[in-house]
Amino acid sequence: MKFxxxxxxxxxxxxxxxxxTSKNVAAESVEIWHKDTNIPSDVSCVILPGGFSFGDYxxxxxxASFSPIMKEVIxxxxxxxxxxxxxxxxxxxxxxGLLPGTLLRNESLNFVCKDVYLKVENNNNIFTKxxxxxxxxxxxxxxxxxxxxxxxxxxxxxxxNNQIVFRYSDVNGEITKESNPNGAINNIAGICNEKGNVLGxxxxxxxxxxEILGCNDGVGIFNSILKNINN
Amino acid sequence: xxxxxxxxxxxxxKGILDVQGKAVExxxxxxxxxxxxxxxxxxxVELDITAQNDGQAEExxxxxxxxxxxxxxxxxxxxxxxxxx
Lengths: 231, 85
Description:
The complex is a heterodimer of chains A (231) and B (85). Chain A contains 5 helices and 11 strands; from the N terminus they run βαββαβαββββαβββα. Chain A is an alpha/beta fold. Chain A has a single domain, classed as Class I glutamine amidotransferase (GATase) domain (Rossmann fold). Chain A has a 9-stranded mixed β-sheet with strand order 2-1-3-4-11-10-9-6-7, sandwiched between helices. Chain A is globular, with a radius of gyration of 16 Å. Helix content of chain B is 33%, strand content 35%. Chain B is elongated and about 50 Å long. In chain B, strands 2-1-3 form a 3-stranded antiparallel β-sheet, covered by helices on one side. Chain B has one domain: Mth169, Chain: A (2-Layer Sandwich), CATH 3.30.1280.10. Chain B is an alpha+beta fold. Chain B contains 2 helices and 3 strands; from the N terminus they run βαβαβ. At the A-B interface, loops of A face helix 1 of B.
């Protein structure tokens, strides 16, 4: 299978995503330029990488969500294609309406750059199918606007439909206020759409995909995609 | 066709914690401006628009606000349309 990594002006985790998917995982991976108007037909999972697309002007992800390629990404997702948005990619997914809610400024007002623990809340989708439910991953975050917000009805819907894929937790998987790096409602770190083919998450699994970095907890997500798309 | 100037004021919706506003409020209080409170920080956008009349200009600007200029999930906006001299 092939991953397609979209490169926007200001993306800075595109190469990490390419590396993680082509070197740490036995998949192929290609870049897709934001001005392209089609997704290569052999790409079965699109990655919207982290970074500061268009300098975070206006709102994070807002301008990127109107890039020519995003029309195609939206069509691709609506037809059941798999899309994962990481950090700025998550912000682009909410701005483009593929995922509900929005990412507000961190409650602390600080840019947070550190390792966090994530509890796998749901493995009913290809992204986490091979991870154990309730297992805990150590993954880094690096963002200033990661404070997930949606109105009460949307949150209730997300909870009831099991659309919350990852929550910030402590090392033992306890969901605590202290383990929440940005003030996100219900410690939400990652959600998927109703169909389960679009995932957005603030933490960076591509940054912890190589053993040489001392932790490769992130690689499980890419392996899960690879294995379950092929099946 | 006429040219108008649109002035758009964007604020975080009431009830949504404005962490920037809160930080500025704390700074004001530390400067002994205890008389000041409820600081809210927003954005101001100005643009020129060509339209048949002010009503149509406002309609287009509102459409653009809903799509990109504001985030209707968390932000409110006010539009003012002025005829260009």
